[in-house]
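COMPLEX REQUEST
Ligand: nicotinamide-adenine-dinucleotide
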Amino acid sequence: MEQTGNVLFGSNALKYLEAAILSCNEKDRKVFFLVDSNTAEFCLPLFYKSIKASSINIHVIAIPAGEEFKNLDTLSQIWQELTEKGAGRDALLINLGGGMVTDIGGFAASCFKRGIETIHIPTTLLGMVDAAIGGKTGIDFDYFKNHIGTFYQASKVLVMTDFLSTLPARQLMSGFGELLKYGYISYPRLLKADPFSFDSHYDWLELIKICAATKIEITMKDPTEKGLRKLLNFGHTIGHAFESWSLENGGDLLHGEAIAAGMLCELWISHKVFGFPMEEVNIYNQMFQKYFDPFRFSISLTDNLLDRMQHDKKNTGQSLRFVLVKSIGEVIYDVEVNPETVRESLEFYLQTLKKKV
Ligand SMILES: NC(=O)c1ccc[n+]([C@@H]2O[C@H](COP(=O)([O-])OP(=O)(O)OC[C@H]3O[C@@H](n4cnc5c(N)ncnc54)[C@H](O)[C@@H]3O)[C@@H](O)[C@H]2O)c1
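STATUS: Structure written out below.
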């Protein structure tokens, strides 16, 4: 399988990219590459090496790396450079980076001159399994995650696992956190994967294809998250609250790590609300503690975290709505949960960290 929906893999992806850029050059369409400081260093040279760079004409826009720069200032920098370099409505913006770059680049493209073509080339595992697919774009605002954004599909998403060879191990595991989500939603086999046994970036490809296919199937049925797509937010109500708090307080919690922690709490809530087996919660807890350095916080932070959850886009009015797991592969969205139960799930989480598993 070298193509699923608008996602191309491996050599097919590279061929498509080369042809797309050459075609733009022939038609006098300007081509822009958006990179962050790391993908400029590690990924752009790989791209130049792989395609016949001498024959092409591209402009590079470089932004700082890190979630703290997924904001209005950086967005403004991108629009400024597109304007100064004469991007027309027919310009092509290629976002080469992790979820931060594809989210902000996709958003920039969706509004610039009312929308220009954009291609995503994810360079992190998290981007390949999730962020680059499905057309959600956005920036953080006032420390709330993805508070401002659009739904805007990239014309293509080009997945090349070669980029994973320079990705730091912690970033790779952050992507694994998001990958595990698909195990609960629809593909239990993913929960048996042991990334510590993987030798090279090639070992990830099959898992990436499973996640990509799942995300495409769900987002094609519900592109603007009216219903089914909400399933993909499993772990995110509590995970985003952790991430938002960390962002505001100068922490370095990664997105996938926050979601992995959020999933532990939300599996426990699933146990309380739907009787999801406690044995399965414990199995996940073992995985969680094996693969991640768990996010730690003081119990006195609970009200602050609950307040952040109220701002979650999934919530309406004062109610807290969750995506919960009835059984592995059977996930329900829009489940209203009492704040007291959420509070208890945070206590459970902190207790489990005290116990050695
Ligand atoms: N739009 C969506 O549907 C969606 C889904 C999930 C997550 N997200 C968003 O994605 C973001 C997280 O994505 P991420 O984890 O990819 O973070 P990221 O883009 O910040 O990348 C993580 C780090 O790895 C570096 N990096 C990227 N590729 C590299 C490579 N090949 N070699 C070396 N370093 C490299 C980056 O510069 C950065 O420092 C969050 O903002 C999250 O909200 C969006």
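REMARKS: The chain is about 45% helix and 15% strand. The two ends are 39 Å apart (CA to CA).
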